[in-house]
Amino acid sequence: MCDWQALESSILTCRLCPRLVAWREEVARVKRRAYRDEDYWGKPVPGFGDGNARILIVGLAPGAHGANRTGRMFTGDSSGDFLYAALHRAGFASQPTSRGRCDGLTLQDAYISAACRCAPPDNKPAPDELAACWPFLTQELALLRNVRVVVALGRIAFDAVLRVYADRTHPLLPQPLFAHNAVASLGDGLPMLVASYHPSRQNTQTGRLTVEMFDAVWTHVRDRLL
User: Fold this and answer.
1) Which DSSP letter does residue 209 get?
2) What does the mean pLDDT of the chain come to?
């Protein structure tokens, strides 16, 4: 039976995807000028949050100069700023900002994971790289015994969640369509799946995802826990 410590160890030591290993380590070596005095994480990034959470949040992958630098999901970049501010407004995060692993941020009733654990070039993991990470998400779901709602941030995360549940031999309803703030059933007795646009800079700066739209997702999620 996998436990949290064993799972984290298996994530941190994973080198299954040569392209991702080379990229994450190159980014950590070269660095961005603004962070040249920092030590980059440069490894796969484990999940983060409340082990008794009723909400599982699944993102795409660590940002090259965000989680790949800081070592914590959605930490140190604009996507994280947008996400944690929303979680704080909804009562799921202790503070609205996330700068580093030791900044005091805690999550209440929420756990954050990702479809891919290494920063991919151009934020685009290949299908085989995503498949290599699915077992980690499966193990997290086995350990997160109280999850009632899974929130998928973006289409890739949405598809990863569906695939993981299919691999767990649970019967799925017909393939649901991805749409912002849409809800899909994963099957009787299983969590509900809520979809959201990813809080990437591309989405938030173009108005595809606004603060109001994102807040509506977390209000929706909170209502489903009542």
Assistant:
1) S
2) 95
